[in-house]
């Protein structure tokens, strides 16, 4: 591939910025300086370095992060640190973005990618991919809450949520698991507010049938395995195919 195209695709800037980078002589392919945008370089077979750092070209990246509280799920924010601020440089240059949002104080599983189709498959209301959260409540959840969640909850603005699954362990009824299939603003917190309870801690523990990798400490992330990416895509596809989803 042309050097300028490869570097621009990988997020090193516009064609003009990439040209400047090449002129600086900081791009190397197998130990040789690449200074012309038109030069062909082969990331699959050559050792490429940019500014002394090895460069591995993949068109798409798929990351799983255990998001800590305190980070914003956005690509930029004027006042707060975002989830992108804690990524390694060679991931950031691929211009990734979070798949959906978690509130600033919510922890847990956040996927980050630069693949718009992957993101859409997991966030589109049409696919209705389930997301499961662990929630700590200010008081025990009741049997009626389980029933109310399974019917759908009318939020304070009149919106009626889709049916959700609430699991209340007998041993700790204030530490519950809830699975929702849509992603309205503050949805889980607002659903509990509607039944008179406050969420004091929230963590996403699963997307589709893929659980959070609990070996990731808060703030840590890793590349998703191919098997995990395909599992989620397949589940999203099956949900559309089987018509198990809403029409919005
Ligand atoms: N529901 C919420 O209330 N907050 C989140 O971060 C995610 C789901």
What report would you give on this structure?
Helices cover 25% and strands 23% of the residues. By secondary structure, it is an alpha+beta fold. It folds into three domains: 52 residues, Structural Genomics Hypothetical 15.5 Kd Protein In mrcA-pckA Intergenic Region, Chain A (Roll), CATH 3.10.290; 96 residues, Pseudouridine synthase I, catalytic domain, N-terminal subdomain (Alpha-Beta Plaits, 2-Layer Sandwich); 77 residues, 2-Layer Sandwich (Alpha-Beta Plaits), CATH 3.30.70. The strands form two sheets. Strands 5, 6, 7, 8, 9, 10, 11, 12 and 13 form a nine-stranded mixed β-sheet that branches. A four-stranded antiparallel β-sheet has the order 2-1-3-4, with no helix packed on it. A hairpin with a 2-residue loop joins strand 11 and strand 12. Helix 1 packs across helix 2. It starts with a helix and ends in a 7-residue tail after the last helix. It binds uracil (URA). Uracil binds next to helix 6.
Q: How many domains is the backbone divided into? A: 3
The proportion of residues in beta strands is 15-25%
Would you identify the regions where 5 or more consecutive residues have pLDDT less than 50?
none
CATH architecture of the largest domain: 2-Layer Sandwich
Q: Quickly give the structural class.
A: alpha+beta
Kindly report the name of the CATH homologous superfamily of the largest domain: Pseudouridine synthase I, catalytic domain, N-terminal subdomain
Number of helical elements: 7
Largest sheet: 9 strands, mixed
Number of E-type strands: 13
Radius of gyration: 22 Å
- At the third CATH level, what is the topology name of the largest domain? Alpha-Beta Plaits
| Percent helix | 10-25%
Coarse shape: elongated
The CATH class assignment of the largest domain is Alpha Beta
On the 0 to 100 scale, the average pLDDT is 93
């Amino acid at each position: 591939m042309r050097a300028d195209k490869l570097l621009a695709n990988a997020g090193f800037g516009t064609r003009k910025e990439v040209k400047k980078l090449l002129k600086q002589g900081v791009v190397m392919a197998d130990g040789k300086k690449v200074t012309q945008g038109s030069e062909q370089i082969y990331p699959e077979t050559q050792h490429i370095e940019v500014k002394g750092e090895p460069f591995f070209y993949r068109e798409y990246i798929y990351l799983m992060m255990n998001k800590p509280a305190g980070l914003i799920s956005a690509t930029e924010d004027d006042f707060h640190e975002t989830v992108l601020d804690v990524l390694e440089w060679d991931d950031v240059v691929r211009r990734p973005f979070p798949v959906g949002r978690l509130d600033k104080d919510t922890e847990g599983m956040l996927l980050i990618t630069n693949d718009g189709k992957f993101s859409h498959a997991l966030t589109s209301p049409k696919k209705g991919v389930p997301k499961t959260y662990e929630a700590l409540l200010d008081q025990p959840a009741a049997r009626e809450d389980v029933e109310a969640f399974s019917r759908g909850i009318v939020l304070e603005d009149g919106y009626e949520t889709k049916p959700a699954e609430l699991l209340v362990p007998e041993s700790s009824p204030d530490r519950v698991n809830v699975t929702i299939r849509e992603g309205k603003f503050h949805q889980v917190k607002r659903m509990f507010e509607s039944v008179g309870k406050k969420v004091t801690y929230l963590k996403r523990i699963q997307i589709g049938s893929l659980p959070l990798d609990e070996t990731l400490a808060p703030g840590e992330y890793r590349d998703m395995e191919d098997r995990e990416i395909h599992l989620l895509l397949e589940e999203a596809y099956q949900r559309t195919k089987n018509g198990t989803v809403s029409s919005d």
